[in-house]
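Batch job 17 of 40 flagged for manual review because the log was empty.
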Amino acid sequence: MEQGILLFLKERNNMIAGRKVELTIADTGGNPAQAKTRAQELIERNRVHVIIGPLATFEALAIDDYIKQAQVPLITADLGRRRRTSPSRS
């Protein structure tokens, strides 16, 4: 994913919609608690405007509430599908 984003930005001279883009990468180590810590650091310390990822659904679910509270857009898999409950059996 990282290489794909870097290539995408390189091909566009690090510009999207006429604005300069600075990419900051944070490794979560596949750990939900670390994913939340990294998201908090990116938002509060680095003042990022958007978060792309994480790739693992369990990590995305771990940061979902914080991301919503912080009102920072998150580009990742559709979390809504994984939160729906199973249909009740009649």
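Reviewer: the log was empty due to a logging misconfiguration, but the result itself is present. The chain has a mean pLDDT of 87. Unflagging and moving on to job 18.
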